[in-house]
């Protein structure tokens, strides 16, 4: 089952919480400002997509959904993601245009994470242990505030796509990245 809310949706539709077979939930709402922790009732949810400019925080329960594979949020006003005990089933996280300044430490525990898109935020660092993401294939860090690429990224054999456009790298750092990874700026 899939539910997509209307663009003018102003509040979270609590009736959705009784849809136990729901697999895909798309929340798009100019007035949507919060997501209740009761979202944890959606035990079969595999994809959660949020586009709501008034959201300033997320409940930790989202990341503990046992079947969640894809989490997307765009255009919200987040500075961080909640500390949580994450579901190990998460394969793809896309957090773009949110103002995110830091990533949670639990991110490095996601054994099945294959894609991480953090485009257009305010990140300047990655959490310690990032090298533990052994299945990560795509990492998109475009338009953030990175000045130096973490050493871990040079030692990730499964990483096939790394995008770094629009960061604050010095000429020396760009040269180091080009020498080590073959990425041109």
Written account of the structure:
There is one protein chain. With 185 residues, the chain is mostly beta strands. The chain has a domain at 53-181: Ribonuclease Inhibitor (Leucine-rich repeat, LRR (right-handed beta-alpha superhelix)). Helix content is 6%, strand content 17%. It has one helix spanning 171-181, and strands spanning 2-4, 24-28, 47-51, 70-74, 92-96, 115-117, 138-140, 161-163. An eight-stranded parallel beta sheet has the order 1-2-3-4-5-6-7-8, with no helix packed on it. The relative contact order is 0.10.
Residues in β-strands, percent:
15-25%
Number of helices: 1
Q: Any idea what the radius of gyration is?
A: 17 Å
Structural class: mainly beta
CATH architecture of the domain at 53-181: Alpha-Beta Horseshoe
User: Strand-and-helix sequence, N→C?
Assistant: EEEEEEEEH
- Dominant shape: globular
Strand order of the largest sheet: 1-2-3-4-5-6-7-8
Please provide a brief summary of the model.
6% of the residues lie in helices and 17% in strands. The chain contains one helix and eight strands; from the N terminus they run E-E-E-E-E-E-E-E-H. The chain has an eight-stranded parallel sheet, with no helix packed on it.
List the helices and strands and how they pair.
Elements: E1 2-4, E2 24-28, E3 47-51, E4 70-74, E5 92-96, E6 115-117, E7 138-140, E8 161-163, H1 171-181
Parallel strand pairs: 1-2, 2-3, 3-4, 4-5, 5-6, 6-7, 7-8
